[in-house]
Amino acid sequence: MEPEKGHDAVRQATYAEAGPKELLEELEERARRDFQRMRRWRHVHRLLGVLFTVSLIAVPPLLAFGVVEQTDSLGKGLLLGMTLVAALNAAFEPLTHSQRRRASMNAGRRLYDHIRAARLAASTDDASLLEVFEDFADRFADLYAARGKGLLDADLSAKGRADRQKPGRSTNLKAPS
To answer: Which residue from 102, 113, 124, 141 lies 20 to 30 Å from 134 (Cα-Cα)?
Structure first.
């Protein structure tokens, strides 16, 4: 009995059978899906950031001015909810208010547009299509890898290190003499 082929083996066999035109179309489709997925998640994170911020602005006055009593179950629920929202907002601020997310989405869209333009500009011979595919496959992989380096844990630890090492910020705890 023949061993079952893994996903990568099937993909390699498919790539070996495909011509440069099919490879370029598949790369274009991957780039399109990638930037659309980035755009969708950017909207989700933006919506969450706005909801967190609005709730943090609206709940304290409701409780402070007595519109909702803090001793009622609704007041206790609002206090608990506000505490949770504040914690989530602080923990996920790099995601909800990230300029880098917008830049990554725009870079993906720009790469997708460049792939489409290069495919249209390339002649129909296999060598030029293969050259366009190889160039943009490398650029897509580099873009994807660069975006992966900005994962939340790495981003938070790098941000913490950068804050501690800001120029002009003294780490010397002694009083000046």
So the answer is: 102
